[in-house]
Amino acid sequence: WDSHHVYVANNRRVHRLTRGLEYLDTPVDSLPPNSHQMVASAGRLYVTCPWANSLAEIDPTTWAVRYFHLLGDTWHDQPPGDHGDQADVLHVNALLIVGDRVLVNCHNRHQPSQVLEYALPEWRRVAQYPMASYTPCKATHNLAYDGSRLWTLDTGGTRSLVANDASMVRLNATVSHFARGLAMTDRHAIVGLSMYGKSTMPNTRDGRLLVIDRQTDERRGFQLHGSGPIMEVRLTDEHDHAHHVPPLRVQRPGAATVA
User: What is the pTM of this model?
Assistant: First the structure.
């Protein structure tokens, strides 16, 4: 979200909502398939496009779109290269903008995952490093920076919340649960857990939210009946280290803390 609207990335589309979460329109409908996370920063929207190994940059005043190709660190007016699952090399699935740095999470399929770091405003790559815990992370999702450590979900490796200083918080999730979706405050980490399902069938299995007290390691679980896969977890009423945008503070009766 920004100071005007809430935006939702949905495969090839971007939907626009009011800050009260009422649907307005779908101003973008031609992104490369399989878009993942979206963030708003400095008057632009950025969407991860794994099948194009790119980030889409959207101007919400004109809806013009351009693409930053992560394999060549170059800008393009159209999605570069092929746009199918077979062309997905990096499987870029999350980004985090903190100050003048853009951190991009690369799942890297069955290879160890890594983070690409760029300096703004020139989008110059300044670092490329693995998210290592006790073993190389695999199939990582989401990024959070709490002022001292960078965190990610090691979904396909240790099944933990891990940091770049080798700190690890075990999720204790079963093998049937897929960790994706992360929000973080100074006191808590909130992790989305989804049930695996066949990709060719609608998945309406129960999702879960795992709330971890970062000081005491106390855990609380919340069952989300019939939710299907959890793609993202956002906080609306306090600072979120996993997204670094001002709180939304939805002004409507019954608004939840977690969206």
Answer: 0.90
